[in-house]
Amino acid sequence: MTTLSTTGVFAGEVKEFPWNWQNQPLRVVYETIGEGSPLLLLPAFSSVSTRGEVGELAKLLSTHFQVTAIDWPGFGESSRLSLDYNPAIYEQFLADFVKSVFNTPIIVVAAGHATGYVLKLAVKQPEAISKIVLLAPTWRGPLPTMGANANIAAMVRGMVRSPIFGQALYKLNTTPSFLSWMYRRHVFTDTTKLTPEFIAEKWQTTQQPNARFASAAFVTGNIDTIHSQAEFLSLVESVNVPIIAFIGASSPPKSRQEMDALAKLPKITSVIIPGTLGLHEEYPAIVFDAILPFLTNMC
């Protein structure tokens, strides 16, 4: 690991994790802040995914824990290669990262689509994780959620990956006006927080070279590591560490149905708080106050 900076996105120490996928070298950027027991903070997958979205929550948690937040491969400041992004990549990356960076069991706080990956890691390496916090947990990408079948999703993904038409199509779907619409529809509930500066920052991360490849994989469901509600609930039942789930009161109907099904499992503690799919970024103080008792309980 190489230290890149001591003043990161949320005033932490920024490091680089060198990683290889099928003989292709990638650099994965992560940031650490605070002291205490280790806590891994995983941002949600999205076209605008960066560790910055969990930055305010990281700062709050750093008063009690040593917090590490990552930029997933293909997103943020990490390498954005033109890979065929799929679950195998992210499952292997997360396993390798946790094994290399931490030497004691960790707490994992996972937002959105990171849910499936941390659950699978907890099943495969139960000794690596002590507790799991799920923030607005999801497992299905936007196009599948809208009802698109696998063939349509693959066609869209292929178009976005194409050299010229794909770049144009991607730019049309990452304009500031489109991003603002997306946030208003299902990410934030308080639209006063969607300032021009906020949207401009989100737009900027979508415009990095090769940004469209991982983004297209997420949108079309190609990085869905779970493919049915039954599989999702069965996976949760297989995990042998404490799990708490936080559900946004204003979550989109289809996502809320899946979260409510999760909440009904006897082993799950669930809490409804303000917000929707971006609750961790929109209401970090509320999230922090809600999860702290679970994290500091020694049971």
Oligomeric composition of the shown chains? single chain
Average pLDDT, rounded to a whole number, is: 94
> What is the molecular shape?
globular
**pLDDT under 50 segments (min length 5)?**
none
Compact overview of the structure:
The chain has 299 residues and is α/β, with parallel strands linked by helices.
Structural account:
With 299 residues, the chain is an alpha/beta fold. Helices cover 42% and strands 20% of the residues. The chain is built from 13 helices and 9 strands. The longest helix is centred in the N-terminal third of the chain and has 15 residues, at 87-101. The mean pLDDT is 94.
List the helices and strands and how they pair.
Layout: E1 2-5, E2 13-21, E3 24-33, E4 37-42, H1 55-61, E5 65-70, H2 87-101, E6 106-111, H3 114-124, E7 129-135, H4 142-145, H5 150-161, H6 165-172, H7 176-186, H8 196-206, H9 211-219, H10 229-238, E8 243-248, H11 253-263, E9 268-273, H12 279-282, H13 284-296
Parallel strand pairs: 4-5, 4-6, 6-7, 7-8, 8-9
Antiparallel strand pairs: 1-2, 2-3, 3-5
